[in-house]
Protein backbone atom coordinates (compact mmCIF):
# COMPACT_ATOMS: atom_id res chain seq x y z
CA UNK A 1 0.00 0.00 0.00
CA UNK A 2 1.32 3.44 -0.89
CA UNK A 3 2.40 5.70 1.95
CA UNK A 4 0.12 8.52 3.09
CA UNK A 5 2.40 11.54 2.89
CA UNK A 6 -0.10 13.67 4.79
CA UNK A 7 0.86 11.57 7.83
CA UNK A 8 3.42 13.66 9.81
CA UNK A 9 4.99 10.54 11.31
CA UNK A 10 6.30 9.60 7.87
CA UNK A 11 7.95 13.00 7.50
CA UNK A 12 9.46 12.56 10.97
CA UNK A 13 10.91 9.22 9.88
CA UNK A 14 12.23 10.79 6.70
CA UNK A 15 14.08 13.48 8.63
CA UNK A 16 15.55 11.37 11.43
CA UNK A 17 17.54 8.19 11.49
CA UNK A 18 16.77 5.19 13.70
CA UNK A 19 18.75 6.67 16.58
CA UNK A 20 16.59 9.82 16.33
CA UNK A 21 19.66 12.03 16.41
CA UNK A 22 18.30 14.52 13.90
CA UNK A 23 21.49 14.50 11.89
CA UNK A 24 21.82 15.35 8.22
CA UNK A 25 23.46 11.96 7.67
CA UNK A 26 20.43 10.20 9.10
CA UNK A 27 18.11 12.35 7.04
CA UNK A 28 19.99 11.57 3.85
CA UNK A 29 19.90 7.84 4.42
CA UNK A 30 16.19 7.82 5.14
CA UNK A 31 15.58 10.04 2.13
CA UNK A 32 17.10 7.38 -0.11
CA UNK A 33 15.77 4.27 1.63
CA UNK A 34 12.06 4.86 2.19
CA UNK A 35 10.00 2.96 -0.35
CA UNK A 36 6.55 3.98 -1.49
CA UNK A 37 4.24 1.58 -3.29
CA UNK A 38 5.92 0.15 -6.37
CA UNK A 39 8.50 2.96 -6.59
CA UNK A 40 11.89 1.59 -5.55
CA UNK A 41 14.32 3.46 -3.30
CA UNK A 42 12.55 6.80 -3.43
CA UNK A 43 9.71 8.27 -1.43
CA UNK A 44 7.97 9.39 -4.59
CA UNK A 45 4.74 10.21 -2.78
CA UNK A 46 6.69 12.75 -0.76
CA UNK A 47 7.70 14.57 -3.93
CA UNK A 48 4.14 14.50 -5.27
CA UNK A 49 2.96 16.04 -1.99
CA UNK A 50 5.79 18.57 -1.98
CA UNK A 51 4.97 19.78 -5.49
CA UNK A 52 1.26 19.95 -4.67
CA UNK A 53 2.07 22.05 -1.60
CA UNK A 54 4.19 24.43 -3.69
CA UNK A 55 1.46 24.86 -6.29
CA UNK A 56 -1.19 25.44 -3.64
CA UNK A 57 0.90 27.85 -1.56
CA UNK A 58 2.36 29.93 -4.39
CA UNK A 59 -0.21 29.53 -7.18
CA UNK A 60 2.33 28.26 -9.70
CA UNK A 61 0.73 28.03 -13.14
CA UNK A 62 1.19 25.13 -15.54
CA UNK A 63 2.44 27.54 -18.21
CA UNK A 64 5.17 29.04 -16.04
CA UNK A 65 8.87 28.23 -16.30
CA UNK A 66 10.39 26.73 -13.17
CA UNK A 67 14.07 26.02 -12.48
CA UNK A 68 14.89 23.69 -9.59
CA UNK A 69 18.42 24.22 -8.29
CA UNK A 70 19.97 21.23 -6.56
CA UNK A 71 17.39 18.88 -8.06
CA UNK A 72 19.48 15.71 -7.48
CA UNK A 73 18.02 12.95 -9.66
CA UNK A 74 14.99 15.02 -10.64
CA UNK A 75 12.24 13.43 -8.54
CA UNK A 76 10.54 16.77 -7.86
CA UNK A 77 10.71 17.54 -11.57
CA UNK A 78 9.07 14.21 -12.34
CA UNK A 79 6.33 14.94 -9.81
CA UNK A 80 5.73 18.33 -11.46
CA UNK A 81 5.67 16.82 -14.95
CA UNK A 82 3.23 14.13 -13.80
CA UNK A 83 0.97 16.91 -12.47
CA UNK A 84 0.89 18.63 -15.87
CA UNK A 85 3.72 21.15 -15.43
CA UNK A 86 5.84 20.68 -18.55
CA UNK A 87 8.19 23.66 -18.15
CA UNK A 88 9.98 22.46 -15.01
CA UNK A 89 13.72 21.91 -15.27
CA UNK A 90 16.60 21.24 -12.90
CA UNK A 91 20.30 21.84 -12.44
CA UNK A 92 22.60 19.65 -10.32
CA UNK A 93 26.33 20.09 -9.67
CA UNK A 94 26.95 17.51 -6.93
CA UNK A 95 29.83 15.26 -7.92
CA UNK A 96 28.31 12.51 -5.76
CA UNK A 97 24.93 12.71 -7.51
CA UNK A 98 26.54 12.91 -10.94
CA UNK A 99 28.85 9.98 -10.22
CA UNK A 100 26.08 7.77 -8.85
CA UNK A 101 23.09 8.68 -10.97
CA UNK A 102 22.98 5.45 -12.97
CA UNK A 103 19.45 5.05 -14.32
CA UNK A 104 17.90 7.00 -11.44
CA UNK A 105 17.66 10.31 -13.31
CA UNK A 106 14.11 11.53 -13.83
CA UNK A 107 12.83 14.45 -15.88
CA UNK A 108 14.73 17.36 -17.34
CA UNK A 109 17.99 17.54 -15.39
CA UNK A 110 21.15 19.38 -16.41
CA UNK A 111 24.27 17.96 -14.73
CA UNK A 112 27.08 20.50 -14.66
CA UNK A 113 30.62 20.72 -13.37
CA UNK A 114 30.00 24.18 -11.91
CA UNK A 115 26.94 25.18 -9.91
CA UNK A 116 24.58 27.97 -10.89
CA UNK A 117 27.35 30.46 -10.04
CA UNK A 118 29.17 29.24 -13.14
CA UNK A 119 28.08 32.30 -15.10
CA UNK A 120 27.69 32.43 -18.86
CA UNK A 121 28.75 28.83 -19.49
CA UNK A 122 26.07 27.46 -17.17
CA UNK A 123 23.45 29.90 -18.49
CA UNK A 124 24.21 28.79 -22.06
CA UNK A 125 23.75 25.14 -21.08
CA UNK A 126 20.50 26.00 -19.33
CA UNK A 127 19.19 27.79 -22.39
CA UNK A 128 20.18 24.85 -24.60
CA UNK A 129 18.43 22.37 -22.31
CA UNK A 130 15.27 24.34 -21.60
CA UNK A 131 14.89 26.74 -24.51
CA UNK A 132 14.61 29.54 -21.94
CA UNK A 133 17.14 32.13 -20.78
CA UNK A 134 14.92 33.24 -17.88
CA UNK A 135 12.44 31.63 -15.51
CA UNK A 136 9.34 32.66 -13.60
CA UNK A 137 10.34 30.71 -10.49
CA UNK A 138 13.65 29.44 -9.14
CA UNK A 139 13.31 26.81 -6.42
CA UNK A 140 16.35 25.60 -4.50
CA UNK A 141 15.87 22.08 -3.20
CA UNK A 142 17.78 21.75 0.06
CA UNK A 143 20.83 23.51 -1.37
CA UNK A 144 21.62 26.11 1.31
CA UNK A 145 22.93 23.86 4.14
CA UNK A 146 25.75 22.68 1.88
CA UNK A 147 27.22 26.20 1.63
CA UNK A 148 28.61 28.70 4.05
CA UNK A 149 26.43 31.76 4.45
CA UNK A 150 28.98 33.83 2.52
CA UNK A 151 28.96 31.35 -0.37
CA UNK A 152 25.20 31.15 -0.39
CA UNK A 153 24.83 34.88 -0.85
CA UNK A 154 26.61 34.42 -4.21
CA UNK A 155 24.36 31.45 -5.02
CA UNK A 156 21.27 33.55 -4.30
CA UNK A 157 22.57 36.33 -6.53
CA UNK A 158 23.03 33.78 -9.33
CA UNK A 159 19.50 32.47 -8.83
CA UNK A 160 18.11 35.98 -9.13
CA UNK A 161 20.14 36.36 -12.33
CA UNK A 162 18.02 33.78 -14.18
CA UNK A 163 14.65 35.18 -13.10
CA UNK A 164 12.46 36.94 -15.63
CA UNK A 165 12.05 40.48 -14.24
CA UNK A 166 8.81 40.91 -16.18
CA UNK A 167 7.20 37.76 -14.80
CA UNK A 168 4.23 38.06 -12.44
CA UNK A 169 6.07 35.56 -10.20
CA UNK A 170 9.75 36.59 -10.33
CA UNK A 171 10.46 34.70 -7.11
CA UNK A 172 13.14 32.53 -5.52
CA UNK A 173 11.89 29.85 -3.12
CA UNK A 174 14.25 27.90 -0.87
CA UNK A 175 13.11 24.47 0.32
CA UNK A 176 15.06 23.84 3.51
CA UNK A 177 16.01 20.96 5.74
CA UNK A 178 16.20 22.49 9.19
CA UNK A 179 18.46 20.32 11.31
CA UNK A 180 17.95 19.68 15.00
CA UNK A 181 20.12 22.16 17.00
CA UNK A 182 22.72 20.59 19.23
CA UNK A 183 22.56 17.13 17.64
CA UNK A 184 25.39 15.25 15.96
CA UNK A 185 25.67 15.35 12.21
CA UNK A 186 27.69 16.30 9.19
CA UNK A 187 30.02 19.14 10.19
CA UNK A 188 30.08 20.37 6.60
CA UNK A 189 26.44 21.43 6.90
CA UNK A 190 25.41 24.93 7.96
CA UNK A 191 22.98 24.57 10.86
CA UNK A 192 20.73 27.62 10.90
CA UNK A 193 17.09 28.07 11.82
CA UNK A 194 14.58 29.02 9.14
CA UNK A 195 14.49 32.55 10.54
CA UNK A 196 18.28 32.82 10.36
CA UNK A 197 18.28 31.70 6.73
CA UNK A 198 15.47 34.14 5.98
CA UNK A 199 17.51 36.99 7.46
CA UNK A 200 20.14 36.44 4.76
CA UNK A 201 17.70 37.36 1.97
CA UNK A 202 14.26 38.44 3.25
CA UNK A 203 13.06 39.14 -0.29
CA UNK A 204 13.23 35.41 -1.01
CA UNK A 205 10.75 32.84 0.30
CA UNK A 206 11.98 30.20 2.75
CA UNK A 207 10.09 26.96 3.31
CA UNK A 208 10.64 24.28 5.96
CA UNK A 209 10.41 21.05 3.97
CA UNK A 210 8.93 18.94 6.79
CA UNK A 211 6.38 21.33 8.29
CA UNK A 212 5.97 23.58 5.22
CA UNK A 213 6.30 26.65 7.41
CA UNK A 214 6.81 29.62 5.08
CA UNK A 215 8.81 32.77 5.77
What does this structure look like?
The protein is an alpha/beta fold and 215 residues long. The protein has a domain at 61-208: Vaccinia Virus protein VP39 (Rossmann fold, 3-Layer(aba) Sandwich). Helices cover 35% and strands 13% of the residues. The protein has a six-stranded parallel beta sheet, with helices on both faces. Helix 3 (44-58) crosses helix 4 (75-82). It is globular, with a radius of gyration of 16 Å. 35% of the residues are buried. The model is unreliable at 1-42 (pLDDT under 50).
CATH topology term of the domain at 61-208: Rossmann fold
Q: What is the 3D form?
A: globular
Low-confidence stretches: 1-42
Strand count, sense and closure of the main sheet? Answer: 6 strands, parallel
Radius of gyration: 16 Å
> Strand tally, please?
6
Helix/sheet category = alpha/beta
What would you give as the CATH superfamily of the domain at 61-208? Vaccinia Virus protein VP39
Q: Which percent band covers the strand fraction?
A: 5-15%
Q: From N to C, what is the helix and strand string?
A: HHHEHEHEHEHEHE
Specify the CATH class of the domain at 61-208: Alpha Beta
Summarize the structure.
With 215 residues, the protein is of the alpha/beta class. The protein is built from 8 helices and 6 strands. A 6-stranded parallel sheet has the order 3-2-1-4-5-6, sandwiched between helices.
